[in-house]
Structure formats: structure tokens, C-alpha cells
Amino acid sequence: MSKSIRGETTGFSHKALLKDIERQLSDGWGSVQKIEAASHSLTGENDYMSEEYEFEELSFESILERIYISLSLLIESLGYTSLLDDFKEGYKKFDGKLTRLSMLPYVGEFHSDVLGYFWQYHRTLSSLLGLDVQDVEDRKDRARLESILQNTAKIVFDREVIPSNEAEVRKCVYQLLIHVFPDTVREIPISQVTKTYKPDIGVRSLKAAAEYKYAATEEEAKKAIGGFYEDMRGYAGSNDWTHFYAVIYMTKPFFTLQQIQAEFSDVGVNPGWQPILVSGEGGRKKAKT
Q1: What are φ and ψ of residue 7, in 5° steps?
Q2: Which end of the chain has fewer CB atoms at under 10 Å, N or C?
């Protein structure tokens, strides 16, 4: 009886550690996104951005070191000595380049080989301990989707488009997303009693949708934020779409992400909604006279 209890307790501690590693991996991918964002503004003359980049890089290195310790502890506690030796040997190839990032072709986002290495072991151990691997994969894919949305300005720039409205912006993003997520769709209808709402872009397999707004002035940015609140009511209760991204493309940095996050928090926005602010070239076309 006591042996059974000890076994259950040990099994639970393994799963708890595995779930903690999952959170650490999510933090790692989030750190990659922050480094990427900081790198876009990195110049030799901008000391503030340089310090921000270095801070994010140090934070990323700390996350990676903790994941390594956690995975080593988990594998060792499970008694897989050969697997632990392989894991440590494979990790050596990252010596001296732990925080090095590469650019994924076509996608245009940063990638960490060491995080990918950790993810492979995490996925295998998740299957071994009976955790929902699909849920883990979905989390990773949603992180990739979020990273692409955060890179909207770079995606538009790479296509040599100077947008004058949100349709031109989301077209650029959609043209990239369909190569990463083949089940990407546009203007998915969500029917309510008095109106049918259509999110701009959605990935069906992830139940994730993105609503785009375009702002060439501060007043337009304020109006766009208000428009999201109506969208939130329209999309509420959908079983097909449960993760939403409110993306504002601004021609100038009229607001910070922290300001919008604070407003979302103050008005009690559903946690399934996440704001994303990007700044890029553009401007409204002048009406012909």
C-alpha cells in the first residue's frame, strides 16, 4: 500500500516537473520574441536599445540554463541513464552559442536551435508520462502564430508594401501564414442573433483568430481599440474560435503595448484576447479632388 502511494507521489512529481518545464519553454519562446523585437530597433547609436537587447539576451540565457537543469533532473529521476548521457552530449554542441538565434526561411521569424532541442525531449517525455502532447504542440504553434503577428510590420516591409488600410496589411500576413499553417482562412463567419461577425484571419487547427485594425493617427488608434470591444462581444461564446489576437498596425507609435494591456485589464477583457501593437510605414491615401 505504501509502495503504491510512493509510486503515485513520484509519478505526480514527474508530471509536475514536466509541466513546469513546459512553462519554462513557453517563457523561452517569449524571450526569443522579445529579443527579435529589440533587434529591430538596435543601432550603434541607440544605447538604450542596446542595453534592452543585452538584458533580454541575458534573461534568455538564464531561462535556457534552468530548462537544461530541469530536463536533466527529470531524466535522471526517471532512471534513464543512457538517455541522460545522450541529452548531455547533444547539449554540448551549443557550447559558446547558447543564445544564438537563426532566421527561419519564408517565415521571417527568429528561431532558437537549443529551444528546439529541448522541445524534442519534452515532447518524448510528455508521451512517456501520459501528458497531452497535442496540447503541448498547440501551445508551441500558437506561440509561432503570435510571433508572426508581432512581426507584421517586417512582413509588410519585406513585401515592399506601404499600406494605406488594414486590408493591405492583413493580405501580406495571410499570404505568409498559409505557407506556415495550411488551414489558415480569412473572414470566418461567427453568427450572433442580430449580426454575423467575421474575424480577419484564423487558423482552424489552433482555434485562433486575428482581428486587424489600421491607424494612421492617434484618434484612429483610439477608435480601433474601441472597435475591438465590439468584436469581443461578437465573437464571445464561439466553440470554433477560443484564442484571439487584437492587432493594431500604426504608422507611428501612438501607444505602447503596456498602455493597451493596462486598458484591457481595467475593462475586464476576456483573457482569451491578446493585444499586439506594431508600427510600420504607411498613411491614408488623400482623397482625389
Answers
A1: -65, -45
A2: C
